[in-house]
Amino acid sequence: MLLRQDAAIRDRIGAGATLDEAVDPSNKEFGPLAHPEQVQMRVAKRAMMLEAGMQPYPVHLDVTDTIEAVRAKYDGKLEAGQETEDVVGIAGRVLFLRNGGGLCFVQLSAGDGTKIQGMISKKEIGADSLKQFKQLVDLGDHLYLRGRVIASKTGELSVFATEWAIASKALQPLPALHKDLNDDTRTRKPYIGMIADEKVRNMVRNRSKAVASLRRTFDDHDFLEVETPMLQTIHGGAAARPFTTHMNAFDLDLYLRIAPELFLKRCLVGGIDRVFEINRDFRNEGVDATHAPEFTMVEAYQAYGTYDTIGQLVKELVQKTAMDVFGSHKVTLLDGTEYDFGGDWKTISMYDSLSEALGEEIVPNGGPDNPGTSVEHLGEIADKLGVERDDVENHGKLVEHLWEHFYEDKLYEPTFVRDFPVETSPLVKGHRNKAGVVEKWDLYVRGFELATGYSELNDPIVQRERFVAQAKDALAGDEEACDIDEDFLEALGVGMPPAGGMGMGIDRLLIALTGATIRETITFPLVKPLALQ
Predict the structure, then answer these.
(1) Is 449 annotated as a binding residue?
(2) pLDDT per residue over 498-519, tens digit each?
(3) 89: part of which helix (H) or strand (E)?
């Protein structure tokens, strides 16, 4: 449709039509565009440039300086009206345009939002070139200017152009940049958000800084970064519902990974004693302010570590990231409140804190000889409190649901919640002193789970028992239960050293550091197509 209309407009321009004559305001064949007449006009300007031998999308322009560098060098150094003989070549997006008589003004913006004024004068470039400038340049275009650095009569740092060129002709008009973008536009068209909203640009940059900081800290501790498979024949490493796909070459059903854990542990078996991965995971579950189906995780495993040592590592990772991104352990959230990641972090026990909240002791399930608090009694408590229950239940699931009812969204300061039920943590080593409990912690920040850590299970016999129990849950209808991974069990049989392990969502780390939602931390979040709404 656009191609057909472009051809028609180019024919009119080639026949000598003016811009206004080349555009048909009644034409609605440009599709569901917000401003079809404006798009036609911009397409006509592109056609006029081609007809005149000008390139609307040139291969190369002599950009010798960044807007940021010009600002850094000259800001505050020139008096109003002062001119220099320093010539620069800059480019940026046109965010403001004022076409006067013999003098035009533009505001160019660099990718980071740094802006500078350009001045285009008939005296400097000639009447014909100025006429073309007025006729062809629109808001949103990428514009190249070459000229002298001056301060305008009002003191505005400017480039007084001796040469100009359109670097990229924008066919779609930008939204009104002085108005707030609605959330739907910002989410569906992140590139518009980046142009219009400094907060969106900052999030992209801060995310990159955070990932770089994590890598530096791991490198400081001699961790090796690896990449493990995204497509897996067996889903495991976490309790979650997987996405499925099919490989035509092998006629094989596969899963998008829910976690890299089992492959990273194979690295421990192979002698890589400190290993980490920062990559994407996929979980076919609910979407809310802290959950997305596609997200970025960091997982790390340290031979001869425990959940205690790995907890100290996670604290260091988070605190160093806050320092590297924001320059302080105390960060300012999007709502203006401050949050402090510094100092000592609180630690509580899941069973002790739940017992305190209920006013009765909840005892872990230590096996047939020490069954602990029964599933029936825990279910009665859940029903009284109105706590949602699963179709497939056990002691551990009920304990976690009850604990979440009392505490999950109330742990505001950084808090390690330790010692989880064995039933819900099939890959974690049993507690060295407490039957029915595993050496696992979850780190809560501002009322949500940020990270998790373990003393890793490395006994292949116990691991098989845990996998078998999970397989029984899967047969009973638990879609989050792990399958039995025979290859992983074989690897454990070769011998995996004792280890501590951790996992932390990068998206959630940005939520913790900024107060944003998970969609705001992901540069291109998955959104439901409009056609399905």
Answers:
(1) yes
(2) 999 999 999 999 999 999 999 9
(3) strand 83-99
